[in-house]
Amino acid sequence: MRTHTGFVSLSSHIKPPLGPTRRLCIKIPSTWAGLQACRVLESFEPRIHTLATTLFTPEQATLAGEAGCMYIAPYVNELKVHFQPGYEDLRPGFGLCRWAQRYFGRHGQRTETLAASLTSTDECLRLAGVKHITISEPLLKALAGTRASDLELEKPYKSSPEGQGGGLGESLEQVDWEGKEAEWHAAMKGRDQGEGERKMNEAIEIFCSFQRKLEDMVRTVQMEA
Fold this sequence. Notes:
Helix content: 40-55%
Strand content: 5-15%
Distance between the termini: 31 Å
Largest sheet: 5 strands, parallel
Order of helices and strands: HEHEHEHEHEHHHH
Oligomer: single chain
Strand order of the largest sheet: 1-2-3-4-5
Number of strands: 5
Radius of gyration: 19 Å
Number of helices: 9
Structural class: alpha/beta
């Protein structure tokens, strides 16, 4: 918690100024502890906006909505597709992105869906209807260089029946996780034989490995200064 509030405090020293703190959004991994931290930060006055990242399951999405996160970032592909040449995620999360958006809208929750971890322009197009998408610079350039008439735009989101959970096949009934940590963890482990939990843990480890490398680099620079 001190780290996240410290980021907000440090932002006031950036030149040129970033502007009001409401423009800041802190990315936090979608573990149980991480989403409880989101709940606390979102309760501050002024509010500290949060984004629940490394998200692969409805259990994470529903808890993020309950916590009041500003965004969730469902990873369409697990993170290692960007670091392991030739690796393919055989169970991409298109349906989760569409389902989560419908779920939040159905229950009047402020949380919005920001799809992430895309590898092709085709994947970007398959997310038609999802309000927010993180698109890398190479994919943006590829999209910009393609004529609209050449795009084969799929519309799975708009054509998905409301009653079918927006394409995931998951119920849209509201879930209450308040005080149910053990039940939440059990649901995570039971979802697709724990695949979402595995993807989340591997993504967090990848990010942690880069953080450790950065810390080592900073220490080296400080010692040589």
